[in-house]
Amino acid sequence: MELINIVTSFGTFLAAIATLLTVYQMNKQRIESYKPIPIIIDKYYKVGSIHSLLPEIKAYKTYIDLNEVKAERTIQIEFINAGAGTMVDLRWKCLTDIKQWKKMLEKNSSNIRVIEDENSISIKSDYYAFVSHSINNQSEGRINYLPFESRSNMVKIDLPHYLIDFFKLLYQKDCLNKETGQPIIFPPKTYIDITYKDIGNRKYKNKIELQIRNISYGYTNDGTLTDFDIEISTPNNA
């Protein structure tokens, strides 16, 4: 009789453990189902009027859309909340290794000089007039809420203007292989550093790498760069 009671008690104990594990797993799945999910939308960008201080930039998904696309003055990365929960206190910052860019560009062209201090980047080049960019005003931002509804779950993140100028310089003739016409140097990695909370005040942090790939570029007869196209995606989406 005692053995039967022991076996029954042990079976009841195992059933209780199984129930607790089931409740824990269901609660975990419930929390995950309302978790915000940050995603960068893959897009192509045509950069024209590159010798002006404000270039003409068109974002497109297929090349035939270009005639219908409104021109912007900066590259805008589309970031969406693909989860089922609202993002709260969303903050972002664009990160790249500026010192590595400086070293790379100056090493491969005698016409380029990059001057960096705590708050700004200045670029001197024979290709176009002297330009100076504020770092802080162009590399970070914040919004209070990013919902999960498809009509309002997107925010546009401006790529810093100094990065656009770096890419202009990267595709100049003296930075290309004379035989293949391809860039002989590859840019340092660029990231979007994102922090946010869910509605339960749980904190999240993501560092999303931007995969920036050159598609094409155009030149005048004397070899002056006129425009270029790049694809911006993330390795997980590619």
Can you describe this structure?
By secondary structure, the chain is α+β, with helices and mostly antiparallel strands. It has two domains: 1-33; 39-233, Immunoglobulin-like, CATH 2.60.40. It contains four helices and 13 strands. It has helices at 2-33, 98-108, 136-139, 161-170; strands at residues 38-40, 43-48, 56-60, 76-81, 87-96, 112-116, 120-125, 131-134, 140-146, 154-158, 190-197, 203-219, 225-233. The strands form three sheets. A seven-stranded antiparallel sheet has the order 3-2-13-12-11-5-9. A three-stranded antiparallel sheet has the order 1-4-10, with no helix packed on it. It has a three-stranded antiparallel sheet with strand order 6-7-8. A hairpin with a 3-residue loop joins strand 6 (112-116) and strand 7 (120-125). It starts with a helix and ends in a 5-residue tail after the last strand.
Overview features:
alpha+beta, Immunoglobulin-like, elongated
Beta fraction: 35-45%
Main sheet overview? 7 strands, antiparallel
Tally of structural domains: 2
Radius of gyration: 25 Å
What's the CATH topology name of the largest domain?
Immunoglobulin-like
* CA-CA gap between termini: 66 Å
What is the structural class? Answer: alpha+beta
Main β-sheet, spatial strand arrangement:
3-2-13-12-11-5-9
Helix content: 10-25%
Total number of strands: 13
| Mass-distribution shape | elongated
| CATH class term of the largest domain | Mainly Beta
CATH architecture of the largest domain: Sandwich
Chain-wise SSE layout:
Elements: H1 2-33, E1 38-40, E2 43-48, E3 56-60, E4 76-81, E5 87-96, H2 98-108, E6 112-116, E7 120-125, E8 131-134, H3 136-139, E9 140-146, E10 154-158, H4 161-170, E11 190-197, E12 203-219, E13 225-233
Antiparallel strand pairs: 1-4, 2-3, 2-13, 4-10, 5-9, 5-11, 6-7, 7-8, 11-12, 12-13
